Amino acid sequence: MSAQNSDRRSAVLAAVWGVIAERGIDGVSFRSVAREAGVSTGLVQHHFPTRADLIRESARWMIDSASASYPATRDVDDDTAVTELLTHALPSASQSPRGVGIYYAFLATAATDAVVREVLREAKDGARDEIARRLRIGTLEAAALLALSDGLVQQAYLGAISPEAAVSVISREVERARKNPPLE
Fold first, then answer.
1. Phi, psi of 95 (to 5 degrees)
2. For residue 29, what are the domain limits?
3. Secondary element (H or E) of residue 138
4. 92: which DSSP letter?
5. Which pTM value belongs to this model?
6. Which of 34, 53, 113, 162 is a Cys-bridge partner for 41, taking CB atoms 3.0 to 4.6 Å apart?
7. CA 99, CA 20: separation in Å to the nearest integer?
């Protein structure tokens, strides 16, 4: 794929996120995405033959983008890396909760779309395995940390707790998990 084609494809995928953020996943159509991306409907269909392909690839692109920003290749200690992994979705003063809302739209879609469900499951499995590896804990403890993070992100997204409080809880639990022997 040429650089120009890759850029257009990325612009279309980013436009899907824009449509989801404004109108929800039901608002995603070739026309709405083309309008958001500033391209023709034909170009959208060229890259993504069906609406399902458009949504599925956008979900995959979101996961890939999040993975690319993970500090796995940076020189940080394991606790910091895991805490960043578990807190990256928390809204901060410099970041709106838009991405979390889009993720939740994909999560809702996963209830009826096996491909989106598999994309999200693979991402969670990868995160769980990375947490277990970095903290030298079992996968059950790592899954528990992920579940805690998911719940705290939801609470922060809804405004029930502050993102700072969520980070504090997650940091404490990462330290606790590392110090305790594995369950499995």
1. -135, 130
2. 1-59
3. none
4. B
5. 0.87
6. 34
7. 10
